[in-house]
Amino acid sequence: MSKHVIDEAKRCLQCKNPRCKMGCPVSTPVNDMVKMLLEGDIIKAGEMLFENNPLSSVCSLVCPVEKFCEGNCILNHKNNPIQVSIIENYISEYYLEF
Q1: Could you tell me the residue range of the domain that residue 55 belongs to?
Q2: pLDDT by residue (tens digit) across 65-83?
Q3: What is the pLDDT of residues 32-53, one digit of tens each?
Q4: What is the pTM assigned to this prediction?
Q5: How far, in Å, CA of 90 to CA of 22, rounded?
Q6: Within 13 A of 29's CA, how many CA atoms are on the CB side?
């Protein structure tokens, strides 16, 4: 597993009211996705992503995240939001190859 992706996921604060999810046009459950990844359940995370958005793999590459999930991340106040797109893309690609 990519160390960079895991390190990025570990930065997630697991907010009680995740602004990243609220800022996403398709309400991707970012905090749940990150939690599943860190618990080692990447397949379950992939299933959840594709159930929520069948175009998860594509969206993780083309979505203007700075306006949506990453733009709404609480850590964005320090100019260092969680890079949701790389985490989502990693999980999506892994799941599609599974």
Answers
A1: 3-97
A2: 999 999 999 999 888 999 9
A3: 999 999 999 999 999 999 999 9
A4: 0.94
A5: 22
A6: 15
